[in-house]
């Protein structure tokens, strides 16, 4: 009834505004009441022209058209003889928009957002737009946990038909999650389940992460994490019955209650394979992670279907479909799975497309690809190609898609999309101790010179200990088969007088040629041949063995080192690996043509394996041995040293091993170091790929003359480390705490290494 009455009133108003009159021919049109708007604007929107015959219907349509512009709050049409008179009352213009009490948002960003919806300085004031802006502003505050926000909007009329709009905001306090309760759990303690959640109660880092502020999206993600946790542990019938979110009357505290039903725990009774397998069944069965007698795990079911699909993909079946169908026996609490395999059509790759490389040349990327155009589709080769591109270190991200070619059933394109990152680096290394203060070193390099994939580096170090000038160039693809070559030219001066090692000085000038020959996709044999001359200086306080060496073999020595090495790299990333290994065995021997006669053997390995979705385990080890031949000793300046951020953290760099009577490190001919390290996301950065922390246990020893102090065996340390690909470059911090340090050992708990990218 009310709506009908309003409609009649509106019709009456329009009829009244048009002043019912007999139809007439318009000889002229006059506009009255305009202040800011030009008369031409009114004529442009008015659907009546001189010469038209005006009727009541046309007059009503004209009024509606002018109202529809939003410029006017009142429009009337009258007749003055044969002249149509248009009376208008303009809407006010917005002179200024002010915000009072806004601290949570940037005021200029708010003005920009309002401008996008039509509420801005010099625009026509529209009450409906203002109400929408108020609701949106309130919603933004609610999204940030400020449920007690009070918003008051004032519209102040000004002269010349203008208005000021003032938003006065009382933001109130941020509502915090005070308690999260899980009801119905019996198999797992509530504390363990809440540890899975991103949402949490206030803690020492929540001021930054905002995880103590309620978010519907975060809660949904946490509930899915909870569901996955139970399904991966056999609770096939687990369900979340209800989720209640309540807020206290003062809008400051939020309480969340989650009610669950765990259900019984199911075991796997049988696993079968059905369908068109196309691959020997025995081979596919080995890929099924779920075994009879085990506890049911949805994660293993998902992984099994993926492995089978990938295996079929290696045979060209890009669109293979594998479904795991369960058969549940509730009485026995068992579930049997049948994996139905539909390989689909066998397809081949039409084109391999590369996108996102603005600096790196296409050929640099394509030479790493193992999936070729025109060949059968292979999921393994595509994944291997992606991994090789990741290991280059040129890209932040490497993504691959395999869309079907439109209009075909047996062709796909492979699209690689890369996000480039700076490949030049200005590296700084530093350590701090009470005796030495801050010690710095650095180098400048470009690993993707002019986008060619070639590496060029210049090391300049003018520190107290090492003065190095080195120029290196590496061409990783000298031949199309991947044979690499490189050259190093260097001048290296070492002054150990300020360190905790035996005092000496060396000045070395040399050149080295390198050659790398790939023997498999992951294995490379490296050869090197160099020539160098070293001048050695000792002092009165130098260790006697250093002085004896110079007295026996002279101050100047020529050397022609020949090196051969084997390297295998199966890591999935060059920066933050999650799986794979890096192994390197190296042999260096001086050719008899020189003054020196020695050899050095070493082996290094890093093994990464995922422990959970976010935790990664690293086992690292290095062993080395060196000696002389033809009656000559291993030069003391070729000794192995340990201690520092790259070997045994918590001990000063190069300080482990035998020491002389002056308590200075001598180094040794035998090195053994290793560590166990567990990496995990930096608190508050769970999904961030640029930062992570670790806890470590390091061990290491350097052996030489066992009669010297410091030769008592292994030293151990533990601590925490932080790695961050910061805006100024890779940053690595460590806090190491020696576990079995001797009185003569040199400790250095805090160590860091910083790199700056450009």
From TrEMBL:
The keyword Membrane applies. Keywords: Cell outer membrane, Membrane, Repeat, Signal, Transmembrane, Transmembrane beta strand. Residues 1-20 form the signal peptide. GO terms for biological process: Gram-negative-bacterium-type cell outer membrane assembly; protein insertion into membrane. It holds the Pfam family POTRA. Residues 24-91, 92-172, 175-263, 266-344, 347-421 form the POTRA domain. The keyword ATP-binding does not apply. GO terms for cellular component: Bam protein complex. Part of the outer membrane protein assembly complex, which is involved in assembly and insertion of beta-barrel proteins into the outer membrane. Part of the Bam complex. Belongs to the BamA family. PANTHER family: OUTER MEMBRANE PROTEIN ASSEMBLY FACTOR BAMA, SORTING AND ASSEMBLY MACHINERY SAMM50 PROTEIN FAMILY MEMBER. This is Outer membrane protein assembly factor BamA. It comes from Pelomicrobium methylotrophicum. The gene is bamA.
């Amino acid at each position: 009834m009310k709506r009908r009455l309003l409609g009649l009133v509106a019709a009456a108003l329009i009829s009244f505004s048009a002043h019912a009159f007999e139809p007439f021919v318009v000889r002229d049109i006059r506009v009255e009441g305009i202040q800011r708007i030009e008369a031409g604007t009114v004529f442009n929107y008015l659907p009546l022209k001189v010469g038209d015959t005006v009727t009541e219907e046309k007059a009503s349509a004209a009024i509606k058209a002018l109202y529809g512009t939003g410029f006017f709050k009142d429009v009337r049409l009258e007749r003055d003889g044969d002249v149509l008179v248009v009376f208008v009352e303009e809407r006010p213009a917005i002179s200024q928009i002010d915000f009072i009490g806004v601290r949570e948002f940037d005021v200029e960003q708010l003005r920009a957002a309002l401008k996008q919806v039509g509420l801005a300085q010099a625009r026509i004031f529209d009450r409906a737009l203002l109400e929408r802006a108020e609701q949106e502003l309130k919603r933004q505050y609610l999204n940030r946990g400020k449920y007690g926000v009070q918003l008051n909007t004032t519209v102040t009329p000004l002269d010349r038909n203008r208005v000021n709009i003032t938003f006065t905001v009382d933001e109130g306090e941020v509502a915090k999650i005070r308690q999260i309760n899980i009801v119905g759990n019996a198999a797992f303690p509530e504390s363990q389940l809440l540890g899975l959640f991103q949402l949490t109660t206030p803690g020492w880092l929540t001021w930054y992460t905002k995880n103590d502020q309620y978010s519907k999206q975060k809660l949904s993600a946490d509930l899915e994490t909870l569901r996955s946790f139970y399904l991966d542990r056999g609770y096939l019938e687990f369900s979340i019955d209800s989720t209640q979110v309540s807020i206290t009357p003062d809008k400051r505290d939020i309480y969340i209650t989650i009610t669950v039903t765990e259900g019984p725990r199911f075991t796997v009774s049988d696993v079968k394979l059905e369908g068109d397998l196309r691959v020997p069944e025995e081979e596919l069965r080995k890929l099924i992670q779920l075994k009879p007698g085990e506890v049911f795990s949805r994660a293993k079911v998902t992984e099994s279907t993926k492995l089978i699909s990938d295996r079929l993909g290696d045979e060209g079946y890009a669109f293979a479909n594998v479904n795991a169908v369960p058969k549940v026996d509730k009485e026995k609490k068992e579930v049997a799975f049948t994996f139905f395999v539909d390989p689909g059509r066998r397809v081949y790759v039409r084109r391999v497309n590369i996108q996102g490389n603005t600096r790196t040349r296409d050929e640099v990327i394509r030479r790493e690809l193992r999936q070729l155009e025109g060949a059968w589709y292979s999921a393994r080769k595509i994944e291997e190609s992606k991994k090789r591109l990741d290991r280059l270190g040129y890209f932040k991200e490497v993504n691959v898609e395999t869309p079907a070619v439109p209009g075909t059933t047996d062709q796909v394109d492979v699209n690689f999309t890369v996000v480039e990152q700076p490949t030049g680096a200005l590296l700084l290394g530093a350590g701090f101790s009470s005796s030495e203060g801050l010690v710095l070193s650095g180098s400048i390099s470009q690993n993707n010179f002019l986008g060619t994939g070639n590496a060029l580096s210049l090391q300049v170090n003018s520190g107290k200990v090492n003065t190095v000038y080195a120029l290196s160039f590496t061409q990783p693809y000298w031949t199309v088969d991947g044979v690499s070559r490189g050259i190093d030219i260097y001048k290296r001066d070492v002054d150990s007088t300020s360190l905790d090692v035996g005092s000496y000085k060396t000045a070395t000038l040399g050149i080295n040629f390198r050659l790398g020959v790939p023997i498999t996709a992951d294995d490379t044999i490296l050869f090197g041949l160099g020539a160098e001359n070293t001048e050695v200086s000792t002092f009165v306080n130098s260790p006697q063995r250093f002085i004896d060496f110079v007295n026996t073999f002279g101050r100047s020595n020529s050397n022609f080192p020949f090196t051969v090495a084997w390297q295998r790299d199966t890591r999935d990333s060059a920066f933050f690996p999650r799986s794979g290994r890096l192994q390197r065995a190296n042999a260096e021997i001086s050719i008899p043509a020189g003054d020196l006669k020695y050899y050095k053997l070493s082996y290094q390995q890093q093994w990464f394996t995922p422990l959970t979705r976010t935790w990664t385990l690293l086992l690292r080890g290095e062993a080395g041995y060196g000696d002389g031949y033809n009656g000559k000793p291993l030069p003391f300046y070729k000794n192995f040293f340990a201690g520092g951020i790259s070997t045994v953290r918590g001990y000063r760099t190069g300080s482990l091993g035998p020491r002389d009577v002056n308590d200075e490190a001598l180094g040794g001919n035998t090195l053994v170091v290793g560590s166990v390290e567990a990496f995990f996301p930096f608190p508050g950065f769970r999904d961030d790929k640029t930062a992570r922390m670790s806890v470590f246990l390091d061990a290491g020893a350097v052996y030489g003359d066992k009669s010297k102090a410091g030769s008592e065996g292994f030293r151990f340390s533990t601590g925490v480390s932080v790695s961050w690909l910061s805006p100024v470059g890779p940053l690595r911090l460590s806090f190491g705490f020696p576990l079995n340090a001797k009185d003569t050992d040199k400790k250095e708990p805090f160590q860091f290494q910083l790199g700056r990218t450009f």
